[in-house]
Design brief:
2 domains; mainly alpha; Tetracycline Repressor, domain 2
Length: 298
């Protein structure tokens, strides 16, 4: 009887550890990375024929992204404990030790980068290494210093579709730039909206965001400006020959809706409620754009 109890407790312990390690990798972000990387691969010229290369590219990229997210949580464990949405993460709650998180992050990158270098191509490995280094060693510490960190962090955030493209083509070009800009620009109003309705949390945690430095009104104008830029950038895949007119029509409709709701922020009764709604609107915008891109390029 005692043996069975110990075994049961051991299973529960290992299950809890696994769940905590998984939480360090930020599965929600990882799913977006998989989807956008796959879209970049599908957008590459010709049908996908080398499925083993594509699978290795996705696996390696997921491991490197998981490493970046884990190391980000390791470096921000003090900040996470001060914010409502992050205080239940494994490190602030003590479910995992910082040493375990650090070792786990290093191990993930040590496995992921060689998979990409030797199983896919060196360009894909270098792009992943750039994403890892810029996210962990540039974006993460800069968040405590300046709101410019948003633009720095948008660089690794926009690389997954480029990685998918590079995995299939072994090169970069104007098409890869179009894929990069589509995701890079989308992130700016998306995260400005988060900062607006979570401004007090960011300030309490000592993180610098644009609305705290420049004010709410200027942030709304920044959102409008980048929503307009996003509208233009979303048409680039058609301009460079990646997609057909179906994607263009979708991009025009989706971009118009998002830009219109961004402009409404100037007259919204509550900037907090509006920013929250804009944040939730931005997510299906991304899904629709990349789904249309992948389907029209297939």
């Amino acid at each position: 009887m005692n043996t069975r109890v110990v075994a049961s407790d051991g299973v529960r312990d290992w299950s809890a550890i696994f769940q905590s390690l998984l939480q360090l990798t930020k599965p929600g972000i990882t799913r977006v990375v998989i989807a956008t990387s796959l879209a970049g691969a599908v957008a590459a010229p010709g049908p996908v024929t080398d499925w083993s290369r594509l699978i290795l590219a996705l696996v390696g990229t997921v491991l490197v992204v998981a490493a970046a997210n884990t190391l980000n949580m390791y470096l921000e464990r003090d900040v996470d404990g001060l914010m409502q949405r992050t205080r239940h993460r494994p490190l602030p709650t003590g479910r995992l030790s910082p040493e375990v998180a650090l070792a786990f992050g290093i191990a993930l990158s040590a496995v992921g980068l060689p998979i990409l270098a030797f199983g896919v191509n060196m360009l894909t490995a270098l792009l992943n290494a750039l994403a890892l280094v810029s996210y962990v060693f540039a974006y993460t510490p800069l968040k405590r210093i300046s709101s410019v960190s948003l633009y720095v962090g948008a660089v690794p955030g926009a690389l997954p579709p480029v990685i998918g493209w590079a995995a299939m083509t072994d090169q970069l070009g104007i098409e890869a730039l179009a894929l990069f800009l589509l995701l890079f620009v989308w992130q700016i109003p998306h995260f400005h909206a988060i900062a607006l309705f979570r401004q007090s949390e960011y300030e309490r945690a000592g993180l610098r965001v644009y609305c705290s430095e420049k004010g709410v009104r200027r942030t709304i104008w920044a959102i409008i400006a980048f929503a307009a830029i996003q509208f233009v950038v979303s048409l680039m895949p058609s301009y460079v020959g990646l997609t057909d007119m179906t994607y263009t029509a979708v991009a025009v409709v989706v971009g118009s809706v998002f830009l219109g709701w961004s402009v409404y922020g100037l007259r919204a009764p509550s900037h907090v409620s509006w920013a929250r709604s804009l944040f939730f609107l931005s997510m299906p915008v991304l899904v629709i754009l990349y789904s249309a891109l992948a389907l029209s390029a297939a």
